[in-house]
Amino acid sequence: MKSSIFTFKDQDGIEIFVYKWAPDSDPPKAAIQIAHGLIEHAARYERLAEVLTSEGYICYANDQRGHGKTGGEENKGYLGENGWDAVLNDMKMLTEIIKKENPDIPFFLLGHSWGSFMAQDYIQNWPNELKGVILSGTNGYVDENLLKVGEMLVKKELKKFGPRKINDKLHNIVFGPFNKPFEPAETQFQWLSRDQDEVNKYIDDPYCGYVGTTNLYGELLYGLLKIFKEENERKIPADLSIYLISGSQDPSNDMTKNLMKLIERYQNYGIKDLTYKIYEDARHEIFNEINREEVFQDVISWLDSHLE
Fold first, then answer.
1. Which of 51, 106, 141, 160 could form a disulfide with 261 if both were Cys (CB 3.0 to 4.6 A apart)?
2. How many helices (H) and strands (E) does the chain have?
3. Cis peptide leading into 184, omega within 30 of 0?
């Protein structure tokens, strides 16, 4: 695998860091754009990229605003004004770069967690860019009343402290419930994986597991209120290939209950090529789970079957 890092300036002049992983054998059979989760970063997908490049896929993943090298220390957990839409537009800009570098090969989008929410928004806006989309650790439902209460709280916090305040209160509302099913727990991140080494790596990573700003959680609420609206979901064309994967013990989608709500809606909208797989006992980060080799092989099989 050939690894490199490059940057591009987004519409607001922010320098976006991108990891590029290319197969040793040219040319690649398809390109994959990876969107990482909230409060983590793109370099964590290198192992997935190693597997994909060994099968002839070229992979790109950017550190989103407020994350990894793009956010740095100065803007850690801060997306900026209209942050959700800005992150989405940065993804589209990266798509254009990828397609320019790799013309005439199939193009796929893979999003995990927050990245899968971004991918849901992406396919509501630019579905024709894609051969298919993979949604990992995604969700299809958050109680609207809860979102509205959250929105009111965000407004109050913004007024009182401004957008850059490191906000434990909002962080705990978003992430607090996730570890409860695994208590008594060795760490507050047991919900991520059964592989303790992977959990420890996450804890030791300065670009993971920190508390974000009021702005970050406000933008998350804004995005969730947007992507689950029927009029937006109906923009997804019936002929787009969608693959959804999750652990059965992923608390972020209520142990797949809220994932199934999304799948049922997609089925009702008439999406023809809709596949999903639930991994028994796996938790949120299925690419870092004890059964990750199985997950990798399933992803490759799905991609290989969608090249034509």
1. 141
2. 11, 8
3. yes
Please tell me the distance from the alpha carbon of residue 182 to that of residue 178, in angstroms, as a whole number. Answer: 8
CA angle 62-162-227, nearest 5°? 50
Domains of the chain: 2-304 (3.40.50.1820)
Mean pLDDT by 10 residues, the chain (308 residues): 98 98 94 99 99 98 99 97 98 99 98 99 98 98 86 95 96 94 96 98 98 98 95 98 99 98 98 98 99 99 97
Residue ranges of the alpha helices (H) in the chain? 46-54, 68-71, 83-101, 114-125, 144-161, 168-175, 196-204, 214-227, 230-233, 257-268, 292-304
pTM exceeding the 0.90 threshold for the entire prediction: yes
